[in-house]
Amino acid sequence: MEEIPVKVAIRIRPLLCKEVLHNHQACVRVIPNTQQIIIGRDRIFTFDFVFGKNSTQDEVYNTCIKPLVLSLIEGYNATVFAYGQTGSGKTYTIGGGHVASVVEGQKGIIPRAIQEIFQNISGKPSIDFNIKVSYIEVYKEDLRDLLELETSVKDLHIREDEKGNTELP
Q1: Which of 12, 42, 97, 141 has the maximum number of C-beta atoms within 10 A of its C-beta?
Q2: Any known ligand binding at 85?
Q3: Is 87 annotated as a binding residue?
Q4: What are the pLDDT tens digits along the chain (169 aa)?
């Protein structure tokens, strides 16, 4: 089977106002000029990309996601996976703020990727494109497609076809 390259990025969100009011302290720090973080006093971890608390949506998208989107246009598959505990910033990074009121700089990965995909394919009218999108939430080992209203009652399973492609039948 062919090796699939996986890159891992970490984004550290700033403390929320209520956390600052309760005198909470940040427990994750970026080691300057490296792709490493420190958790607690001495636990060091290395990633492909590290974004500190002052990172922007633009910076995260252009560094990690834009290359994937451009490879999609060339016919490759791509997956973006956001993982973290409740309140860690996944929804903000993936989607941005409230959809109806998101200013350009706060747009997350999804609105930026959609815009980029359609801008690219509109410039290639001689090519037929077939776009399939899933927005899957994994919560307590249950899968739910957030773009499909009926999936709260439907059983979703991740499968691999005979060619080794991952699919949601």
Answers
A1: 12
A2: yes
A3: yes
A4: 566 688 999 999 888 889 899 999 888 999 999 999 999 889 999 999 999 999 999 999 999 999 999 998 888 888 888 888 888 888 888 887 655 556 777 888 988 999 999 999 898 888 888 887 878 877 777 777 777 776 554 567 777 888 877 777 6
Q: Has 88 been labeled as part of a binding site?
A: yes
140 known ligand binder: no
Of the candidates 13, 132, 11, 149, the residue with the CA atom closest to the CA atom of residue 81: 11
Q: Which residues contact 122 (CB under 8 A, 6 or more apart)?
A: none
Cα separation of 133 and 35, whole Å? 31
Give the integer Cα–Cα distance in Å for 53 and 14: 5
What type of residue sits at position 157?
Answer: H
CA torsion through residues 143, 90, 85, 71, sign: positive
164 in a known ligand binding site:
no
132 assigned ligand-binding residue: no
Q: Is 137 helix (H, G, I), strand (E, B) or coil?
A: strand
86 marked among binding-site residues: yes
Among candidate residues 126, 133, 117, 125, the one with its CA nearest the CA of residue 74: 117
